[in-house]
UniProtKB/TrEMBL annotation:
GO terms assigned for molecular function: oxidoreductase activity
Keywords, comma-separated and alphabetical: NADP, Oxidoreductase
PANTHER family: DEHYDROGENASES, SHORT CHAIN (PTHR24321), ESTRADIOL 17-BETA-DEHYDROGENASE 8-RELATED (PTHR24321:SF8)
Database matches in InterPro entries: NAD(P)-bd_dom_sf, Sc_DH/Rdtase_CS, SDR_fam
Pfam family, one: adh_short_C2
Record-given protein name: Oxidoreductase
Length: 255
């Protein structure tokens, strides 16, 4: 299938699992050229192998094991992506994220380390990716950046302060960077998923027992492919007049 993303160079963090892997599969199937990153080396190697078999050219898939908390690793990955493919980057899907599997904790029960770990991945890690991607000479014009936030970036949930704070910040970064980058032809948006059936949520179910059906209009959780479709629409020219937006893909949770 030829789309506006065919032959476009797109980076994806969190590409080894869940929403990131689903996005990578769809982009590879539509002929995009991909630079994948994740800190889970074995899952990333599996993803690379699978995606090379979907892609029209195995050379179109480049992968790097890295932790988005590392400034030097993120900067090197973005610079190497440009160098490896010999061209500027057309799209960035910043999807890597972390939810602690702890039982809900009120603020007075959360340790410094527990709070910091979530913020360092979901907020500071995202900041480091955006900073590297928006550096002069890295992105094409036009280009599109899509960050994955959460419905937890739109409302509060008792017992989940760190994650909720980290995702509100992710949406804030999205809005600020969109205002800085628009004049360069770079759009920056976020997708805010509701509860989605990925290994992150499956791990919570293992820890806590069966998760209740989320209280949403569609009365079911989302599938990673459904979140990936929104990310891909925002990456492509089809959404060319959209920037600074946070798109809920949550089955109708808030209204
Ligand atoms: N699943 C949900 O219900 C849900 C809901 C709202 C938002 N989200 C967000 O969607 C995104 C994807 O989550 P998912 O559900 O697919 O989870 P997932 O755990 O299946 O995938 C997340 C991927 O990110 C990688 N990752 C985590 N921290 C990293 C780091 N520091 N450096 C590099 N890679 C790292 C993990 O190794 C994993 O492969 C996350 O940002 C998450 O917060 C998920």
């Amino acid at each position: 299938m030829s789309t506006s993303l065919t032959n476009k160079l797109v980076t994806i963090t969190g590409a080894a699992s869940g929403i990131g892997l689903s996005t990578a599969r769809k982009l590879a199937g539509r002929g995009a050229v991909l630079s994948l990153a994740d800190y889970n080396a074995s899952n990333l190697a599996r993803a690379q192998e699978e995606l090379a078999s979907i892609s029209s050219s195995p050379k179109s898939i480049y992968s790097t094991t890295l932790d988005i908390r590392s400034t030097s690793a993120v900067d090197a990955w973005i610079a190497e992506t440009k160098e490896h493919f010999g061209r500027t980057i057309d799209g960035c899907a910043n999807i890597a994220g972390f939810h602690p599997l702890w039982t809900p904790k009120n603020i007075e029960e959360i340790s410094d380390d527990e709070f910091d770990e979530v913020i360092q991945i979901n907020t500071t890690g995202l900041f480091k990716c955006l900073r590297a991607q928006l550096a002069p000479g890295i992105l094409s014009s036009p280009a599109s950046v899509v960050n994955v936030g959460s419905v937890s970036g739109l409302i509060g949930f008792a017992g989940d302060s760190a994650y909720v704070a980290s995702k509100h910040a992710a949406h804030g970064l999205t809005k600020c960077v969109s205002k800085e980058a628009g004049k360069r032809g770079v759009r920056v948006n976020a997708v805010a998923p509701g509860q989605t059936n990925t290994p992150m949520v499956q791990a919570m179910a293992v820890e806590k027992g069966v998760l209740p059906t989320p209280p949403v209009s569609l009365q079911r959780e989302g599938q990673p492919e459904e979140i990936a479709e929104a990310i891909i629409w925002l990456l492509g020219n089809e959404s060319g007049y959209v920037t600074g937006s946070v798109y809920r893909v949550d089955g109708g949770m808030l209204d």
